[in-house]
Amino acid sequence: MNVVEKVNLILKKANISKVNLSKYLGVSRQMVYNYFDGDDLSKLPNEKCQLLFNLLDVTSEKEILDINITNDYLQRVGSKIFDTKKSTPKKEESIDLAGLKKDEIMLIGEISQMLKNILIENKGREGEAYTTVEYVHHFIENLSTTKELKYILGYFSKNFGYTDPNKFAFDENNQYILESIMYSAMTLYSNGGASRTKLTESHRRWEAMLNSKKEEKLTRTQELNTAKIRALRELGYDEIDKNNASEVLDKIAEIMAQKF
User: Fold this and answer.
1) How many CB atoms lie within 10 A of CB 61?
2) What residue segments make up the domains of the chain, in order of their start?
3) Against a cut of 0.90, is the pTM above it?
């Protein structure tokens, strides 16, 4: 059993869903799935990793494999999720910046103010401002799992004159390649030199790829839902609750395993 499997086992036995965990970590549910897509916790940012360690009562990834899963342990872990959920006050106008350096706090403040200005200054433009900020949110949310997004940020920072074009903060070779491709693409776009027909063909291929991903995800969701219904029926339950969750989830896993 690897670390991710052990964490998932603990979460399942403690009746902690991915939604519960995402709220505890302060990320979306999809990001939680991205973090746990592997054998270890290397995809988790350090801050999120520390939160997870705190939840599991460990100080390092290595200790997770040695955890003895007892009822008392599961209650302690569960209480951290559910007690926090009950006691955490709703914060609408502030965020927790504890642990950050002064310049980091200032940077976040400036970014927040810029995003606020976008929303305020573009009111009445049929949702354009909100959509812009929402896209920024989507972009940032995937920074830790898609390294190319960082290279794109580097390209525009250099293009706007903020950063030396020969400075590479990330993987130099890959960043250099993507920046060169970005320059060629932006030049082609600015000059209008690309054939509309070829662009249409390219866009259609991209759309087809995205639709294929959506269908694959939908199929997976439907399979899980079918497995859940079958598991409930075979076990004689009408729905999943805190008393039967562990048993039902084990049955779902068993049913899904039969498909492969």
Assistant:
1) 18
2) 3-87, 93-145, 148-194, 198-257
3) no
| Gap between the Cα atoms of 223 and 253, Å rounded | 11
Lookup: tokens for 150? 């960082």
Res 88: pLDDT: 47
CA contacts within 13 A on the Cβ side of 151: 17
3-state secondary structure labels for all residues of the chain? CCHHHHHHHHHHHCCCCHHHHHHHHCCCHHHHHHHCCCCCCCCCCHHHHHHHHHHHCCCCHHHHCCCCCCHHHHHHHHHHHHHHHHHCCCCCCCCCCCCCCHHHHHHHHHHHHHHHHHHHHCCCCCCHHHHHHHHHHHHHHCCCCCHHHHHHHHHHHHHCCCCCCCCCCCCHHHHHHHHHHHHHHHHHHHHCCCCHHHHHHHHHHHHHHHHHHHHHHHHHHHHHHHHHHHHHHHHCCCCCCCCCHHHHHHHHHHHHHCCC
What is the model's pLDDT at position 135?
92
Q: What are the average pLDDT values for consecutive 10-residue runs of the chain, which has 260 residues?
A: 90 86 82 84 86 90 91 88 57 69 89 86 75 91 90 95 94 95 91 83 89 82 86 86 83 75
Q: What is the pLDDT of residue 21?
A: 87
Residue pair 47/69 in contact by the 8 Å Cβ criterion: no
The encoded tokens of residue 257 equal: 């395993």
Q: Cβ-count burial of 11 within 10 angstroms (0-12 exposed, 13-18 middle, 19+ buried)? A: buried
